[in-house]
């Protein structure tokens, strides 16, 4: 296990990078706690895999350092970093049996065969492959091969970190849930530092102690699932986390009030004067249809999601989503939407603004 420090880290695939726009990974300074489970979350091309490959030693950063427990490993090869990495697509030895694939990292480090057999059996049970240990990997499907890759990554107890690069892409949905559960159990039992790259918010939020949200090569927020949901630091976080994501609406903010197309919205706190692009953000969970109060809206459709309803509405061309309880009425005369003032966030140029006062005046 290791504490991983990212010191002034940045990377460009362009050797003649002249500006920040040329960087796939923009400057990052952060310390990953020893024994914590992190998820790197973001859309394709945001820099997640670039950062993971720098941590693993597969990629040398353009600038900055990476340290394990205070030791500079920036120039150290992957083998010397004592990490295990599982990739998006399975990497297995086709001519070996499942047992020998799982045993390979242990035998490579000189463990005795009694320990190897016990550990392989334990991991095979975790990934549901106990009855396949004597089969050659060559004849297995992609999902079975990926389970072998996961197992081989988990088989060692002494690694500094376990790195996962979208490892469940080829796994069927039911097995995804099972393997995520096993990964969390592994983390609980052995306390490995784990970093899990994904574009799937469900995977990130159910796996990690802290989620690292990346956008356009930059880390825009690091926090617990609750923090990302309650207080998105950037409008992208609000949009990307949640289904549907946060409503982001252009507004004029004056003190404890927001004004949208002439309509007044109460805020849960007061704000100093703001410059640039100003918006408010509110989760659909904290919006409610009303007969008399709030913004005038036109309900376009109602989607039944089982335990709740998603109401798709429009306010002067601005989409607004509302999540209502299964039994909440949606009537033709309900043509307005209200927001819980305490749940409204304010943004200037896409970044969340801290309130000036705790309560509205």
Automatic annotation (TrEMBL):
GO terms for molecular function: ATP binding. It comes from Nitratireductor aquimarinus. Keywords: ATP-binding, Cell membrane, Membrane, Nucleotide-binding, Transport. This is ABC transporter ATP-binding protein. It comes from the Bacteria. CDD domains: ABC_Carb_Solutes_like (cd03259). Belongs to the ABC transporter superfamily. SMART domains: AAA. Pfam families: ABC_tran, OB_MalK.
């Amino acid at each position: 296990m290791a504490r991983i420090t990212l010191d002034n880290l940045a990377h460009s695939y362009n050797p003649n990078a002249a500006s920040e726009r040329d960087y796939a990974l923009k400057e990052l300074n952060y310390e990953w706690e020893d024994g914590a489970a992190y998820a790197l979350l973001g859309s394709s091309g945001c820099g997640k895999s670039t950062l993971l490959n720098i941590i693993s030693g597969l990629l040398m950063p353009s600038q900055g350092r990476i340290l394990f427990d205070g030791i500079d490993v920036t120039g150290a090869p992957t083998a010397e970093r004592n990490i295990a990495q599982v990739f998006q697509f399975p990497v297995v030895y086709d001519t070996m049996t499942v047992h020998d694939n799982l045993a390979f990292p242990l035998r490579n480090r000189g463990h005795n065969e009694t320990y190897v057999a016990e550990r392989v059996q334990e991991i095979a049970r975790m990934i549901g492959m106990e009855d396949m240990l004597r089969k050659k990997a060559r004849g297995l499907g992609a999902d079975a091969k990926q389970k072998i890759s996961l197992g081989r990554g988990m088989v060692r107890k002494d690694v500094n970190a376990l790195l996962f690069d979208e490892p469940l892409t080829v796994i069927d949905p039911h097995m995804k849930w099972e393997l995520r559960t096993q990964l969390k159990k592994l983390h609980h039992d052995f306390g490995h530092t784990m970093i899990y790259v994904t574009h799937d918010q469900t995977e990130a939020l159910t796996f990690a102690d802290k989620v690292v949200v990346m956008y356009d090569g930059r880390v825009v927020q690091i926090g617990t699932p609750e923090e990302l949901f309650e207080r998105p630091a950037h409008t992208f976080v609000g949009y990307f986390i949640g289904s549907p994501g946060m409503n982001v609406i252009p507004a004029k903010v004056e003190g404890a009030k927001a004004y949208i197309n002439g309509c007044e919205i109460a805020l849960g706190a007061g704000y100093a004067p703001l410059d640039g692009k100003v918006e408010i953000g509110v989760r659909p969970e904290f919006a409610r249809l009303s007969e008399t109060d709030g913004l005038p809206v036109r309900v376009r459709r109602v989607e039944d999601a089982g335990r709740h309803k998603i109401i798709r509405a429009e306010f002067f061309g601005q989409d607004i989503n509302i999540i209502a309880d299964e039994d909440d009425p949606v009537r033709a005369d309900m043509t307005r939407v209200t927001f819980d003032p305490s749940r409204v966030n304010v943004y200037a140029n896409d970044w969340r603004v801290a309130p000036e006062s705790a309560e509205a005046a």
